[in-house]
Design goal:
- The complex is a heterodimer of chains A (111) and B (113).
- Helix content of chain A is 0%, strand content 59%.
- By secondary structure, chain A is mainly β.
- In chain A, strands 2, 4, 5, 9, 10 and 11 form a six-stranded mixed β-sheet that branches. A five-stranded antiparallel β-sheet of chain A has the order 1-3-8-7-6, with no helix packed on it.
- In chain A, a hairpin with a 4-residue loop joins strand 7 and strand 8.
- Chain B is mainly β and 113 residues long.
- Helix content of chain B is 0%, strand content 51%.
- Chain B is globular.
- Classes of the chains: A mainly beta (111), B mainly beta (113).
Chain lengths: 111, 113
Amino acid sequence: GIQVEQSPPDLILQEGANSTLRCNFSDSVNNLQWFHQNPWGQLINLFYIPSGTKQNGRLSATTVATERYSLLYISSSQTTDSGVYFCAVELRRANDYKLSFGAGTTVTVRA
Amino acid sequence: DAEITQSPRHKIIETGRQVTLACHQTWNHNNMFWYRQDLGHGLRLIHYSYGVHDTNKGEVSDGYSVSRSNTEDLPLTLESAASSQTSVYFCASSESLGNTEAFFGQGTRLTVV
């Protein structure tokens, strides 16, 4: 199956710092999503981004599908950004909508 | 607002018992999925469905079953619960055409004692 690798596995930030999370995947994809799992365990949709660049407030994401990677940028981090960030991909195959998840990046933002 | 809900949110059951976790979505999505999340393993796919009466096994399907009798619901049944099935279970749904963005329920924390 498709391999999804996220880096770094852990990230500790001081409040106000910027950071970049990376997701590499091993095959062509139809869909790529970034999620934030908050301390209560809820999975929050951040971006649906099979290609291109999107921005939402202090967060932005870029997917370069031809080179099989995606980046999530967090700017001016806040303590509420803490949690686990997951990248998930849907293989480019007809009628196949399953998501495969990376292992996640655990982000801790310190005040 | 359309949503996806799971119940119960927490459950403790004894080894060998049967339990069913409910998942209900109001988006009229064709696709529904069950994942489990364990430390060290991320989210792994248990079962999925692409429409009414369609069910498929995921990578960790042993000991689980699903049925899809309508569009809105995909209940997950553990026939004879084992301690290895202690986990957090997430249900998700997505559309089949165009934007296939998946949305997740709040999760069910299941403990098998």
